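From the shared-data thread, chain only:
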Amino acid sequence: MQLGLIGLGKMGGNMAERLRLGGHQVVGFDFSADVVAKLTASGNLGVSSLDDLAKNLKGRKAIWIMVPQGKPVDDTIAKLEPLLNPGDILIDGGNSNYKDSIRHHREVTAKGFQFVDVGTSGGVWGLKEGYSMMIGGDKDAVDYLRPIFETLAPAKDQGWGHVGPAGAGHFVKMVHNGIEYGMMQAFAEGFTIMEKKEELNLDLAQISQIWRFGSVVRSWLLDLTADALSKNPTLSGLEAYVEDSGEGRWTVFEAIDLNVSAPVITESLIRRIRSREENNFTDRMLSIMRNAFGGHAVKKD
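Structure, as tokens:
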């Protein structure tokens, strides 16, 4: 089966390679000429324009979009629509807001095309491990794309599924990432507590390896943490600055809208935001208030 793929960054490139190994041909477009050439050299077909991408897809077109959420997705869909035939399928496999995906489905369907949203997890490990895919959209479009999903997934019947109508795929991926924030924060806090207990001289890399087997907290996230600690046990050279992709924020907004208490996910998001504050004004305010009402010492630069 052929698949058009727009966006050949690390994740998109790995997806193209996994599909090639599974017997599918990818026709890929990216603004980087080097990346396009690399795709062709690997056995797929790289093209230099969206027009060339559409021309090289035979029969019913299926085009997977892997670009940043928001305006880039809107613009890409607008440029593709004149190149499509009725029944062709657009797939958004990036981290789009589920509300945008519902809108895209409505607008694309009205023009005679189909739209599928795929919340995709797996990152740089997807080529080896397979991708977890949470899929929203019309059943007939999802069924048509089944060979693609079965090839990208860890196994034909594992790690992927049609979770609901348009928007459902990105909604479930949004919550998935919110949970991920909380799990990462819990591990980070636990290891920090152990690191601060200096008199016990704990080996964090050793402990992470112990927890990987038999423990109730064993997980792939812990496996990756253990590997990272084995390479850099003191985290030397790293800055305490943590970005967020946006999906953690959307999860918190949804929790508020739905009157669902989600303190762990919310606090993990706040901690990420706080990590970016230089000369933290909030903490300086707390310090000066403690000094004002209790005479507590204030540390100065």
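Residues 232 and 238 are 10 Å apart (CA to CA).
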